[in-house]
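Could you help me review a protein record that somebody else here produced? My question to you is simply how this chain folds and whether the tokens agree. Thanks in advance; the entry in question is below:
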Amino acid sequence: MTEISQELTSLATSGAAALVQAMTTDLWSTVHDRVAALFGGDQGVAAELDQTRSDVLEKTLPDEDARTEWRNRLRRLLRNNPEAAAELRVILNELKYEEPASSQVTNQIYGNVTGTAFQGHTFYGGIVYRGGPSDGSGSVSHSQ
């Protein structure tokens, strides 16, 4: 991959992340119109933006899937129309969007802690702990 294509891919990734993040804010209508304009004001793109937002808000489309979808679309746009990169940068700057420095998750517990602690990025469903002795021989089950 060339340095230019890496830069455009990075820009598309940041653009998609900012776009999906904006879907849940008061800035949405402005961002929607600006992104649709990036694609030449295509009404089909505007409708797809609306559908993606609806799916994200209704939790029928995970944010990660929405970011992937729009990253790919933005990457194709930037590859076919490199001039659009400048406008996308302006949008990102106006949103004050900065890519997180790292996606690493760090969990820490301080102090005199007794009992069971669960640490992790995300927990789903009914997690039940059946406590055992302090040697950690308890069991954890997960039901959906």
